[in-house]
Amino acid sequence: MKQAESLYQRACRVIPGGVNSPVRAFQAVGGNPVYIASGRGATMLTVDGQTVVDFCGSWGPLILGHAHPKVVGAVKEAAERGTSFGTNTPREVELAELLCRLVPSLDRVRLVNSGTEATMTALRLARAATGRQRIVKFDGCYHGHSDGLLVSAGSGLLTGGILSSAGVPAAAAGDTLVAPYNDLSAIRGICEAQGPEIAGIIVEPIAGNMGVVPPEAGFLQGLRELADAHGAVLIFDEVISGFRLGPTTYGRLIGIRPDLTCLGKIIGGGMPIGAVGGRGDIMDLLAPLGNVYQAGTLSGNPVAVAAGLATLHVLLEDPPYDRMAERARCLAEGLNAAARASSVRLHCAVTGGMFTPFFGDAPVRNLAGAKACSAESHARFFHEMLDRGFYLPPSQFETAFVSAAHTAEHIEAFVSAAAEALKRMG
Ligand code: PMP
């Protein structure tokens, strides 16, 4: 028996479903999940001795690839000085200053431990700042697993959404309105009907949790205008997109200023972190200045902060963004050409270093489009590629990443493996 199988069997006895986060269980693609022994640069070594080129990148944080020497050095140095103090350290000030400098819409920023904490706090702030209850989110955007955000579109836009998890109070669904992504007229309708009750609009400015789906022209600007017109707080969830397409947020790159921004992933360089930041008048509602409570034993953890600072400094000193975008573009073009030469319906979406092979014909612009793609073909492709040494996110509804560590050779090898895989599938 392979080591991964025996580990998974042991795990299933002591960890629910054998995993510490659901999508790792390979439910969408079938088969035994992988177990990783180590990673370096663009590759990972499985416990069974297979080397795979990694396009999942720990779901986004590893923009520099695995075990980047500067990040590992910073982590070691920080750990040797003590892993946590439960009080203040100089480097958390440095990271907050750097974030505020690189993202001008952040007057102030608070560090937390995960993306979920960041969005949860952003909603609380939006409610406190407006004295209103309701939140609007977009179907297919994921903002972590807090109650009010585990809601998906119900049958009517103007009624609350439907709970997408058991154990969430029904009131959460009533207070969360769900609109289709990239559809300004739908959200305009919601705002016209319920504007005075809407505390905040939360959106992934590039959607990454239904596969990568970029915003259409005018969508985000339209949200900014609607939030202003109705007195709602505009929240950009940049947990994936922050520092992914340039050394700043996507909002900053396109010149749209949200009231609050949520960050995570890259700013922790692979260590657990999150951040919420934005307008000073809203951020100052947080305790101890204001009466919005938020806290964390390990918030601003010195090891996580060191990994994040090291990552951001590498991104500033040697920006990999053009290179990553070019490689991802080559990968997508190669994949689309290979698909045309086969009988498999495939369209690879790409934005900067983010890409998703969607198993359908038309470009995807919202969750309905992503759901219309063939999950079965995706699952087949995932395993064909894994067998050939390429690790993709194990779900159709996820974004894959080209990191700074991927070379032109990795991309060429991916494209020729994909051509073989697609031929076998067709
Ligand atoms: N927001 C977005 C856009 C995300 O993609 C994620 C996680 N993938 C989260 C929030 C939640 O982050 P975490 O898993 O760190 O809680």
Report on the architecture of this protein:
The chain has 426 residues and is an alpha/beta fold. The protein folds into 2 domains: 3-63 and 320-425, Aspartate Aminotransferase, domain 1 (Alpha-Beta Complex), CATH 3.90.1150; 69-317, Type I PLP-dependent aspartate aminotransferase-like (Major domain) (Aspartate Aminotransferase, domain 2, 3-Layer(aba) Sandwich), CATH 3.40.640. Helix content is 38%, strand content 16%. It has a 7-stranded mixed sheet, sandwiched between helices. It has a 4-stranded mixed sheet with strand order 1-2-3-15. α2 packs antiparallel against α10 and α11 runs parallel beside α14 (408-425). The mean pLDDT is 96. The chain binds 4'-deoxy-4'-aminopyridoxal-5'-phosphate.
